[in-house]
Write a structure and sequence with these properties.
heterodimer, A: about 240 residues, alpha/beta, Rossmann fold, six-stranded mixed sheet, 7 helices, globular, B: about 800 residues, alpha+beta, binds adenosine-5'-diphosphate, binds magnesium ion
């Protein structure tokens, strides 16, 4: 089965200028992510992983290069268009969960749907489905502070998938979790992938990189290595062979 | 102590680093403390100044009352005062004063002097120690030609000449020997000289010829209640003996209450307003400190973990507060100093003379106390935080301190309170503002532009009979007309808008006369009404032919004509005073004689000024191409040619005269406006600060929301909504507050309801707009949050 690249990066550059100092966070990145793929981005701290993810997620604009999302160029959109695309096409999972403390689990998951202007009834169904998927239905009315870290990250995952985005972007989703909780969150992502989600995950934990079909190794803002399968050479999932 | 100094030093360093906070807090406190200091000064002068005579609390004001007319007070007749003095058992002394203006002659420029013509006990009631010579004594016979002068007059007119004592001065053309000089602090009702009263025969005989303002000194140990009871008994006895005393009683009040009681409501209002401003300032600073303290929770937790006691833990915050309050108080003194110039017109002249309005020591003490209280109030905010400090949590948490729910509620509550208090002040100002506008809009009936006036009083001792006095006035008028820049001039016995004058009951043909058929009566020269711009509505104006010995023609105002001659042509109708009947020659416009407050009579009968109606003094009204000094010089010269002892008193424009009737209201409005503006500004800063803080606190959250696709318009809307909801709650609360505050306003405003829904709505709208403005920058900042922050670990 052939799949289309839903993300295509060509010669993406990112330069930060702070106090007259230029940091070349990304230099000449070429990358394609195909539908249904589970891609892992690895590399040492400060090599530009988060920057790349921010650009992929339209949280930030590249300093140069081409970015196509679902076939449309998105590198230079205005703020409100970017917000709209983020809302519909992208689901974020953060290292520090980033649940909103004042809102309940339900309301947190609901938030992207509210921004989308979805009617209440439909929202409710979607939220409950998403919570079911991560096994957090029983905590729907809790506040984030009442949950463990692992539970919070499950809720964050539910929030990311509730809107059925084109791609899930996860930045070190296990970075703030102990190994048991980390593994269970990774199992959750694996399950989503198995059911068809496209995932792009940043991690520097080689154990979890193995969950991916393909790993991109970054160093100093450049792709230095790209291989199929996890970081230790495990074969890629059969579904994605092409 | 070294600990405190150390804390203060650190606080100074911290404040110099946090310049934005320090400036805002300092500004808030300087304005708040300054406003209060100004009011303290007023309080100090107007309420706490000891009156300048011995045992002032024993000095009472005495008035006659009429049972049939509750609320009315009348001055006393000579014989009634004499009877009260003879029969009472509670007063050491009773005395009466007739206030008269006299011409002080024998000078380069003759002066009009306000004189108290007093009965023999006056200086037994007001026991003052003269700076030179003696006061008047009971042994000075009635009308004896002696005078005591005020120190002010002595210095102003005689340059403080020590040889004046024992010399003669000319008062109303008669020689009087100066027997004493009164101290400058004794400014009794603006009187500058005192002479023994010489009542005329009629004044002595007629039981209800009421012309004396009476005062009494209580015997030691006698209470006000006892004195009231005593005089009530005296009045009862007199009512059975004297026809004219039937149905009449006595009113006894302390002198202070009687003279300055009405100022109390002004001070109360301004004190309340200033207190509100300070409260807002305190809340404002407390909120800023709260935000600062949140940022320092970790430091505080560390201090506590290291074994610091509560006080040591909040010492840095307290020290900051103390420093800001003290510097704020110093700056507040400057604010107060400037504000005093505005307040000055509210202080009665005689009190200001006893103690000038200024920053006296007790005021400074109160200011210092206020500053300390302020520091305590503001500093308690971080103290509150400490009560709930969870050490383990704050030590564990990263470097960033987040705000708890409870703390945010407190912060929001403080913003709501600021808006509420600001609304009270803004609505108070609106009420005062509309009140002044209404006062100014009341048609006075005279033209105030380009009309000028001054007062003259031919000395009655020279011009002993009416004919001679009238001749003198006509001569003055002729002299005034001869001044080249004067286009038109006339005279009237009482100045319109400034004072009500004489009134009398009148009758019309075929109508049962009532006691309430009262009209102001005015004597005028034919030119007076045209100069004043009072229009002729019907009939004719006065002509020279009306200036005959027993004139028959009068003019009446339109209101009187409508009321008493409805459906008839008033011209030619007859109007009677006593047994004399007059014919209405013309109808003229209505004039508000006693100013715009709609008090006093509107109905007026104008007589031509001839011998039979010639007054003691008059206002020359004129239209001239010149004004001020350029006019005054030639006028003086012209009047001097007629009578070298006749002073030209207070040349002023009619606009000034009319403006003076609302001067107090204007000052109060200006002050309330300033207070309201400060309050609104502080509320604006409060909302702005709180929202900015909230946005800063929630940068991460806002970033997450934006990462999840929240449109930036929505982020802006959320912040604005937060601000407007707080403002809205504040306004609701403030409307309740405005009802409470209206009590202090009601007695001062004119035909305005301080809780009028429209007025409150307008004030709310102003503050809502202010709040929206305050939301603007925080909202923009929120919309500019970089959504990539969501990716940054905390
Ligand atoms: N907003 C920013 N401003 C300036 N420099 C930045 C910014 N974000 C990231 N950088 C710099 O870009 C480089 C890559 O950072 P990042 O993508 O966060 O690395 P990683 O996620 O791989 O640890 C680093 O050198 C970092 O300091
Ligand atoms: Mg990173």
């Amino acid at each position: 089965m052939t799949t289309n690249p839903i993300i295509r990066l060509e010669s993406i550059k990112k330069v930060f200028t702070t106090d007259e100092v230029e940091t070349h966070a990304l230099a000449d990145i070429h990358l394609e992510i195909r539908e249904g793929e589970f891609l892992s981005i690895a590399g040492p701290s400060g090599c530009g992983k988060s920057t790349l993810l921010a650009i992929l997620g339209l949280l930030d604009a590249p300093s140069g290069g081409l970015y196509e999302l679902s076939g449309k160029p998105v590198a230079r959109l205005n703020l409100s268009d970017r917000a709209r695309i983020r809302n519909r096409e992208i689901g974020f999972i953060f290292q520090s969960f980033n649940l909103i403390g004042d809102l309940t689990v339900f309301e947190n998951v609901e938030l992207p749907l509210v921004y989308r202007g979805m009617p209440g009834g439909e929202r409710r169904t979607r939220v409950m489905l998403a919570l079911e998927e991560v096994g957090m239905v029983h905590r729907a009315n809790h506040l984030p502070a009442q949950l463990s870290g692992g539970q919070q990250q499950r809720v964050a995952v539910a929030r990311a998938v509730a809107g059925r985005p084109t791609i899930l972007l996860a930045d070190e989703p296990t970075g703030n979790l102990d190994s048991t909780n980390g593994e269970s969150v990774m199992e959750l992502l694996k399950g989503l992938h198995r059911r068809g989600s496209t995932i792009c995950m940043v991690t520097h934990d080689s154990r979890f990189a193995n969950f991916a079909d393909r790993t991109v190794q970054l160093f100093d803002g450049r792709v230095v290595e790209e291989r199929q399968g996890g970081a230790n050479g495990r074969p890629a999932s059969a579904a994605l062979q092409h | 102590m070294p600990g405190l100094l150390n804390d203060l030093r650190h606080a100074l360093r911290a404040l110099l680093r946090a310049r934005g906070f320090a400036t805002a807090a300092l500004l808030a406190l300087a304005l708040g403390i300054g406003a209060n200091t100004a009011v303290y000064s007023m309080l100090h002068t107007m309420v706490l100044t000891p009156l300048p005579f011995k045992d002032p609390e024993r000095v009472m004001s005495l008035w006659g009352t009429v049972t049939a007319n509750p609320g009315w007070t009348a001055s006393l007749s000579w014989s009634r005062l004499r009877d009260w003095a003879a029969r009472n058992r509670t007063f050491e002394a009773l005395a009466g004063v007739d206030s008269v203006a006299m011409n002080l002659g024998g000078l380069e420029t003759p002066q009009r002097v306000q004189v108290g013509a007093v009965t023999e006990g006056f200086f037994n009631v007001f026991q003052v120690r003269p700076v030179q010579g003696r006061t008047l004594l009971p042994s000075d016979p009635e009308g004896s030609p002696v005078v005591v002068l005020s120190e002010g007059l002595w210095r102003r007119v005689y340059g403080g000449d020590p040889a004046l004592l024992g010399r003669e001065v000319r008062l109303n053309g008669l020689s009087h020997t100066v027997v004493g000089i009164l101290p400058g602090t004794f400014a009794f009702n603006g009187r500058e000289a005192f002479v023994p009263l010489k009542p005329r025969q009629a004044e002595k005989e007629r039981r209800n010829m009421n012309f004396l303002i009476a005062y009494g000194r209580l015997k030691a140990g006698v209470t006000l209640a006892q004195a009231r009871e005593d005089l009530a008994t005296v009045c009862q006895a007199l009512a059975t003996e004297q026809e004219g005393d039937r149905g009449r009683g006595a009113l006894v009040r302390t002198y202070r209450e009687d003279r300055y009681g009405s100022q109390g409501s002004v001070i109360l209002l301004l004190g309340l307003a200033a207190g509100l401003v300070l409260l807002i300032a305190c809340i404002n600073v407390a909120n800023q400190l709260l935000a600062r303290a949140t940022g320092r929770l970790r430091d505080m937790a560390v201090r506590a973990a290291l074994g610091g006691g509560r006080l040591q833990v909040i010492a840095p915050s307290l020290a900051e507060c103390l420093l800001i309050s003290l510097v704020g108080a110093a700056a507040g003194l400057l604010v107060a100093h400037l504000a005093l110039d505005l307040l000055r017109p509210l202080v009665p002249a005689d009190l200001a003379q006893t103690r000038a309005l200024g920053l006296h020591l007790p005021t400074l003490g109160l200011t210092l106390a206020t500053a300390l209280l302020t520091a305590l109030l503001c500093g308690s905010a971080p103290g509150l935080l400490l009560l709930k400090l969870n050490l383990a949590q704050h030590l564990k948490e990263g470097s960033k301190s987040t705000e708890s729910r409870g703390r945010r509620h407190l912060r929001n509550a403080l913003v709501v309170a600021q808006v509420a208090l600001a609304l009270m002040l803004v609505s108070g100002f609106s009420a005062a503002y509309f009140s002044v506008n209404k006062l100014l809009a009341v048609p006075l009936g005279v033209r105030t532009e380009a009309v000028q006036a001054f007062s003259i009083q031919p000395s009655p001792s020279i011009h002993t009979d009416e004919a001679s006095r009238l001749r003198a006035m006509r001569n003055v008028l002729e002299a005034v007309r001869s001044v080249p820049s004067v286009e038109q001039a006339g005279w009237i016995d009482y100045m319109p808008t400034l004072q009500s004058g004489r009134n009398a009951t009148f009758k019309t043909r075929g109508r049962e006369p009532l006691e309430t058929d009262l009209a102001e009566v005015r004597a005028i020269s034919p030119e007076a009404l045209p100069v004043l711009g009072v229009p002729l509505v019907r009939g004719r104006a006065f002509e020279d032919a009306d200036l005959v010995l027993n004139p028959k023609a009068v003019l009446i105002n339109a209101g009187l004509a409508d009321q008493y001659f409805p459906g008839r042509d008033p011209v030619g109708q007859e109007i009677g005073f006593g047994s004399d009947w007059f014919q209405v020659a013309g109808v003229v416009g209505d004039v508000r004689h006693s100013g715009p407050r709609r008090k006093g009579l509107l109905n007026t009968v104008y007589f031509p000024a001839v011998e039979t109606f010639s007054p003691q003094s008059a206002w020359i009204v004129l239209r001239s191409r010149q004004q001020g000094e350029a006019l005054l010089g030639p006028l003086r010269a012209a009047v001097r040619r007629v009578d070298p002892d006749l002073p030209v008193v207070r040349l002023q424009s009619l606009a000034e005269i009319a403006g003076r009737t609302v001067r107090g209201e204007r000052v109060i409005t200006l002050l309330l406006g300033l207070f309201a503006a400060i309050a609104a500004l502080l509320a604006l800063l409060g909302i702005h600060g709180s929202l900015s803080y909230s946005v800063a606190q929630r940068t991460q959250e806002i970033g997450i929301r934006m990462a999840l696709g929240a449109p930036s318009g929505r982020v802006v809307r959320d912040v604005v909504r937060e601000g407007l909801v707080l403002a809205g709650l504040g306004l609701l609360l403030g409307i309740a507050g405005a009802f409470a505050f209206s009590g202090a306003l009601r007695s001062l405003v004119f035909e305005v309801n301080p809780t009028d829904p429209l007025l409150l709505a307008a004030a709310s709208a102003v503050l809502l707009a202010t709040a929206a403005l305050a939301c603007l920058f925080p909202a923009l900042r929120a919309s500019r949050v970089d959504p990539a922050v969501a990716l940054r670990a905390e």
